[in-house]
Design a protein that fits this description.
11 strands, 2 domains, globular, 368 residues, 38% helix, eight-stranded parallel beta sheet, alpha/beta, Aldolase_TIM, flavoprotein, TIM Barrel
Amino acid sequence: MPTALTDLCRHPIVQAPMAGGASSPELAAAVSTAGGLGFLAAGYKTADGMYQEITQVRGLTDRPFGVNLFMPQPELADAAAVEVYREQLAGEATWYETELGDTAGSADDGYDAKLAVLREDPVPVVSFTFGCPDRKTLQALDRVGTYTVVTVTTAAEARAAQEAGADAVCVQGIEAGGHQGTHRDDPHSDGTGAGVGLLTLIAEVREDVRLPVIAAGGLMRGAQIAAVLAAGAAAAQLGTAFLACPESGAHPLHKQALTDPLFTRTELTRAFSGRPARGLVNRFLREHGPYAPAAYPAVHYLTSPVRKAAAKAGDPQAMSLWAGQGHRLARQLPASGLMETLVAELAAARDQLNPSGAAGTGPLGSAS
């Protein structure tokens, strides 16, 4: 049966919510206006800051868009391990002439206040990362007409999202840039064997749940979008592909690094935030990644001043250069131009897959 996603965008392309400033109102509005589904990232913002960005998007487009929330995190940080890491980073603070951050920041990211705003003044879509809301929360959003999406990295997490009453799941493969949206951060699962590739994960989730699937992880070209749609996804979510757009709020050094020959690969690391996140391998990641504790968001607050000072100094070697495995395929196009290019590539790929011209499943596929 057709999914409700068909009411949200003309093309099966979702712009990933990228916390830290990349998902600007201008980017979200441009993607939505071009027929995709633009997203704001509420992570690390206050409830009022989130609301101000929502207001900006509404002033730029009349098309649907989404807002992503971080789920509150348990107080699991080992204070002693964080202090040891602080000592290891003392040289970074000295080099960049700054202080290390206060690790006593809130672990709930203003979650309840943001939910209150979104219930009182609803947006078309709300997605969740780092966990699954309870049924009561999802029902409250459903009552105000909001479509809900839960980010998952395993079939078990997808089952939990379905049982809680989510409308769809965003299936995040190990290829994805930025933070892995695992519902439980288990440091014992770190290592080269951690995580599942996107195509395999789509298949596993489709075996277990009936919810529409939004596929995320390393997608940069229209042919890749066609592949995940053929694998059963209803839409594809792209983050790194939109990072290089002029509307993106990412730092210019971050945008340049995506295709800079100096940065040849990505890794999952806890170095910058204390939670596994995929970024371009730079000096900071190499030197501190092996010693970073599983302590999110304490490590995020700890390293924030160093990352900002490095950016101000024009030094990408101590910035968190989040990027997916497909970063070398980034194109510096306006968001509308990138959307147009992706849609054309998707159409060409579909023609190759279906040369007879038989009827397909519609612009956003279907879920069964």
